[in-house]
Amino acid sequence: MTPPDRHPHMNGDAGAPEDPILCLEHGDIYVCQDGPRDAPVLLLIHGSAASSRSWDALVPLLTTLHRVIRVDLPGHGRSAEPVDGDYATPEQGRRIGMALDRLGVEHAIVVGHSSGGYAATALAEQRPDLVTALALINTGPSMDAFIAPGPTAFHPAQWPPTDEQIRQFASTAFRAGYQVPQELVDELRGMTYHAVTAAMQASTAYLNQHALPDRLMALGKPLQVIFGDQDRRWRPSSAADYRVVPGAKVELLPGAGHTPILEDPPRTAALLLSFAEIHTVRAPKAT
What we know:
287 residues, eight-stranded mixed beta sheet, alpha/beta, 8 strands
């Protein structure tokens, strides 16, 4: 798991520390908060084999106008593996909803990167009162759009893997030539083999049950889709599949791969802020 000093955690504008670990049913969840506590909430959900740390470059660009909340999904980063072993996507959504309730959040624009978009969608399916709008970043719409990877770089009998094995495994998460950050290598090594594989299998099962555009059409939530046009995990042209969702805003980022939140934070942040400005629910001012 991630070392305890990886993330800053603040309490409002004072900068005083607060407990970032929420004790929930079936396992503790790590939460990181940045920005003013009275600002509209942006919830950021990372993908499989990553953690809330994957948003580090993007967060400073968002906190001027938003309270940014990040979570480590079960078995990732500093969150415990689920006691019941349930990594199913709907269960991930349920636990995120419980965490937001504990934080007193009533409305949030939810942003998911890669398979984090499935947890974001599951949360919106269960808690339409809570989720104002959805933004998906390089989230594959269906398994038909998946670009099959090469041989897996590691095996359970050889866990934990070496740096080189992890870099080989993670290389398609970025545009060609982009160096996999060492901190992300360390994050993946800190996970168990079961957590890595179970989370990925849960995402596949969620997509096989219903394609994401079908789920989103049923939800009727405002939707933004951001896709790097050099994605090597999901066919970039598949971003157009989301256009069946009424009002969906689909943006391709030229030159970006599967992880524009690290490869191109300024352009990614600009798109998110523009979308959030339109769809933020603001609390009424006191009279």
